[in-house]
Amino acid sequence: MSTPDHLAAIQHQQALIVLDGALATELERRGAKLQDRLWSARMLIDNPALIEQVHLDYLLAGANIVTTASYQATFAGLAARGLDRGQASAVLARSVQLARSARARFMALKPHEPLPLVAASVGPYGAYLANGDEYRGQYGLSDQALWDFHHDRIATLLAAGADLLAFETIPSLQEARVLSHLLNEAFPQAWAWLSFSCRDEVHIAEGNRLDECMDVLSKNPQLLALGVNCLPPAWVPTLLAQARQATAKPLLAYPNSGERYDAVHKTWAGSTDPQAFGEAAHGWQQAGANWIGGCCRTTPADIAAISQWARTDR
Q1: What's the domain count of the chain?
Q2: Average pLDDT over residues 198-217
Q3: Hcy-binding domain spans which residues (predicted)?
């Protein structure tokens, strides 16, 4: 069964596709130290077993898709840590292998559940810079430079057995276009979703209107869903309404928990409640989202709260 058919079969059984939640902040919650340019990808080297356990816990919470720990794993970033080309390829492949291993463990425990899918995370160029540019864009790079940056990482992740790609936290229409063209021209058998980081309830991080971006990307049949991630939950309904006016594709949303990040002290402020997050997610579905999960500071409990109603509201 193809990836699109598999996803359609899952959504025939429940109200929406349930994505997983945060990886890096969940690893930190479990004691991982991620003060590193590689962020969560550091654990691919230091503690891969912890990554696999987080994947498994999200599957047990009801996620239909788990996203690999490759968001900030790039050939350039791994080279800066002293890894040669072969070692870097092995780290990238390991991110997929860990998710697939967690899936195998899940299916051994829950053999009658739908087979979950593995999405290989492809973070933006700004994530490699590790300076917050995934929330600003404006890299000043050519299309060819972005193509070259992303191409080999995507090839490695697909060769390792990812079911689809997650182009996530993309701040600019330029980078989104490059990724879309790369998918068509270099990987015509691959599937992906693409989600933007946003600066407010109307614009993506670099400044284009979200609906304009949706209109451009809608023409690519390999992009199975479009949407937003890593943003305040309160922005989601308005952004989804805008996106729905511009595309008939499935929409996805996986915002942060709602807590606020203090970049000066590198701490989070506020509180979160899984039940409230799950109820908010119900509203995002009513606003047009077909695929829903969580980003920074969300946990397996948040995903369980979404899955609970997604599996009964049919």
Answers
A1: 1
A2: 97
A3: 5-310
